Automatic annotation (TrEMBL):
One of its GO terms (molecular function) is hydrolase activity. This is Glycoside hydrolase family 32 protein. Residues 356-456 form the Glycosyl hydrolase family 32 C-terminal domain. It comes from Aquirufa echingensis. Pfam families: Glyco_hydro_32C, Glyco_hydro_32N.
Length: 468
């Protein structure tokens, strides 16, 4: 029934109705992925935040669940993470059941209105039924505000070498690390980033996790930022470095972005996925999220993406690609052999190809002349996405325009994948070293493809079926 709604993505997660922002508390257990999200069940704009909940077996098809966390006397339920406390360090487990513990920010709206700086505090809630229903911990908050207005979005992980929990918390213009033996008592360890990275706005929604590369363990620190992203508004920067349970030391002073597009914010990774790292972001931007022209709901998430670290001239950089399960939704394949317009049967497609490093563009359009153009400019060595003429952008002066992503790869061929889904395009080049995500609101679906390239044909165009 949702599939017929105008602008409703069919391959991407969207809430059943009403307002959604950040993905929260994502984890995997017993064959099921859990996704929670910032949710206002009474309106299509932001308001008193709950944690909505959905479950999936393959990260593509999601089943909506009852709301997992409701606001309480400590405040609204802002963003955070969830862990499985396998060893019951918290003592919140029962009868051999390891609790799922959600760690989130309690945001006190009354205190905010009263001008109180200490309005954001960290709380926990636990579940004994695998993340379906939660009880709030009686001793909340577990971290009290020390006098920092923006003090939120805790992301917790078990640090095995030190046998302790580590929390990374966004604290205005930096990250603060805390540790705990039991998820209830927290000690400040260190701070990171006041003088590094992009600071055009407030640091929000961090994530810290280890990855294996070249036989070593490296730590990735994702730091979402709003505003001040690579192409304006909100976006996700990251750092790669070392973490010893106390301090994060970055490999260098570069600012790098998980995705250079305008519409990938507050992204973090799933917990409990072993050696895999799966990232999902909110496919919007605070520059216009509350005014985009959808009627009964607002916002979708990005497709789930596999993260990998690549060694690029001695520096480690993130590459992201859509998870392999996308291929299970293919219904047909055609080959694009010329620079003429090709019609696709569906508004859900995956286009892929390989071509020499040279200017090229892919124009995705409808019969009304609305279009999104994605391509590469050799002179500036950048990929771009242009949604200037993509349909309605009357709702915000900040919406139209072009976003650019630098090409990092040095190889002499470009491989790319582009996935489109009714109201979004996700472009990945060079094995995901460059990513650009964009949303748009055409009056009719964009399913004409035209590829402008001197060399590089043919391309493969696959139709996909809805996953939702
Ligand atoms: C990021 C954010 C978080 C906060 C949440 C509130 O989009 O501002 O910092 O926890 O949204 O909904």
């Amino acid at each position: 029934v949702f599939a017929q709604e105008k602008h409703r993505p069919q391959l991407h997660f969207t809430p059943p109705s009403m307002w959604m922002n950040d993905p929260n508390g994502m984890f995997y257990a017993d064959g099921t992925y859990h996704l929670y999200y910032q949710y206002h069940p009474e309106s299509t704009v932001w308001g008193p935040m709950h944690w909505g909940h959905a479950r999936s077996k393959d990260l593509m098809h999601w089943e909506h669940q009852p709301i997992a966390l409701y606001p309480d006397s400590l405040g609204l339920i802002f963003s955070g993470s969830a862990v499985i406390d396998h060893q019951n360090t918290s003592g919140l487990g029962s009868k051999g059941i390891a609790p799922v513990v959600a760690i989130y920010t309690s945001h006190n709206m009354a205190w905010e209105k009263a001008g109180r700086i200490d309005r954001e505090n960290q709380s926990i809630a636990y579940s004994l039924d695998g993340g379906q229903t939660f009880s709030k911990f009686a001793g909340n908050p577990v971290i009290k505000n020390p006098g920092i207005a923006d003090f939120r979005d805790p992301n917790v992980t078990w640090f095995a070498p030190g046998k302790k929990w580590i929390m990374v918390l966004a604290t205005q213009d930096r990250e603060t690390f805390y540790s705990s033996p039991d998820l209830k008592n927290w000690t400040k360890e260190s701070e990171f980033g006041a003088k590094l990275g992009a600071h055009g706005g407030v640091w929000e929604c961090p994530d810290l996790f280890p990855m294996q590369v070249d036989g070593k363990t490296k730590w990735v620190l994702i730091v979402n930022l709003n505003p001040g992203a690579a192409n304006g508004g909100s976006g996700a920067q990251y750092f790669v470095g070392d973490f010893d349970g106390h301090q994060f030391i970055p490999q260098d002073e570069e600012t790098r972005w998980v995705d250079y597009g305008r519409d990938n914010y507050a992204g973090v990774t799933f917990h409990e996925t072993g050696d895999k790292r799966i990232f999902m972001g909110w496919m919007s931007n605070w520059d216009y999220a509350t005014v985009v022209p959808t009627a009964t709901w607002r916002s979708a998430n990005t497709l789930p993406r596999d993260l990998k670290l690549h060694n690029l001239n001695g520096k480690y950089v993130l590459a992201s690609t859509p998870i392999a399960a996308v291929s299970n939704y293919i219904t047909g394949t055609q080959t694009i052999k010329s620079n003429k317009v090709v019609k696709s049967a569906s508004a859900l497609q995956r286009l892929s190809g390989k071509l020499p490093v040279q200017d090229f563009s892919i124009t995705l359009s409808n019969n009304k002349g609305e279009q999104v153009i994605i391509g590469y400019e050799a002179a500036s060595n950048r990929y771009f996405v242009d949604r200037d003429a993509a349909g309605d952008h009357s709702f915000s002066a900040k919406f139209a325009g072009k976003a650019y992503a630098p090409r990092l790869a040095k190889t002499d061929t470009i491989d790319f994948t582009l996935i489109t889904d009714v109201a979004s395009a996700e472009f990945f080049a060079d094995g995901g070293l460059s990513a650009l995500t964009t949303i748009y609101f055409p009056s009719e679906t964009l399913n004409n493809f035209k590829i402008t390239t001197a060399k590089g044909l043919p391309f493969t165009l696959e139709n996909l079926k809805p996953s939702m």
